Amino acid sequence: xxxxxxxxxxxRAGVASRRHAEELIAxxxxxxxxxxxxxxxxxxxxxxxxxxxDGEKIRLEPPAYYLVNKPxxxxxxxxxPYGRRTVLSLVRDKKARRLYTVGRLDEESxxxxxxxxxxxxxxxxxxxxxxxxxxxxxxxxxxxxxEDLKKARAGVWLSSGRTPSMYVRLERRSQQFSEVTVKIRExxxxxxxxxxxxxxxxxxxxxxxxxxxIMAKGLKKGAVxxxxxxxxxxxxxxxxxxxxxxxxxxxxxxxxPPSRSPSSSPGGSSGRRGRKPSGxxxxxxxxxxxxxxGSRRSR
Length: 299
Known about the structure:
The chain is of the alpha+beta class and 299 residues long. It has helices at 6-12, 18-26, 119-126, 146-154, 191-198, 229-238; strands spanning 4-5, 30-32, 35-36, 43-44, 51-53, 56-57, 65-70, 100-102, 110-116, 134-141, 157-158, 161-162, 167-173, 177-184, 203-211, 214-215, 224-226.
């Protein structure tokens, strides 16, 4: 087997994403053949060398990819100290020891989430720089007017800064509730709930209905299915930042024209003569044009 970078081996083993694996290496959590490794770019052969994370031997497991239709009330964490239900408890895979969710949905949200042991794949799907679009269906309190739709699309200011622009399509609305479809590429913590709360519309229901090209297709709440090889391939193809996105870019700020100095403004000291009224006194208003012959033009 060809040698590969240590942090990639850790990601394939499901220890962590590539970026987090680099941090683990730098902090002295990884050893190769009994020697602690802290430098980046170390090349290893995972089949012939003894690679350990915090003393535990790393074994490459066959990659596993699951699609879960998360019900409300489940956490996207490996375990919970308070004994609350987790998404991983829905996935029954005895072969894969290290499974984790790709991204997160908060406890009150529901819908599609991917579970895998492939750290590199998880990073490609979850990180905003790779541009995989996530689609959500939201039910909101109150009547969402056109002005609020415009603000949500452009981004609003929160305590953490301005939210990214997003695709927002109104599905239906009444005085009591409104429903929208939202597409985003960057998933800040509870960003959709915070955006619409800022606009005065609390989220009643939040459901993720699509991850890139992957949809539920009859997958019931709480159910799990294995992602097909062509679906995994389609997700990796969708994680190409060079491809066009259906999420709009941030609005461009309008640049104001430079202010004119008094010397360049009409009526200033630009050398042009002002127009004389019939009374003979010079006017301070708009300067008068002269014809080529030098005679004054009439209005």
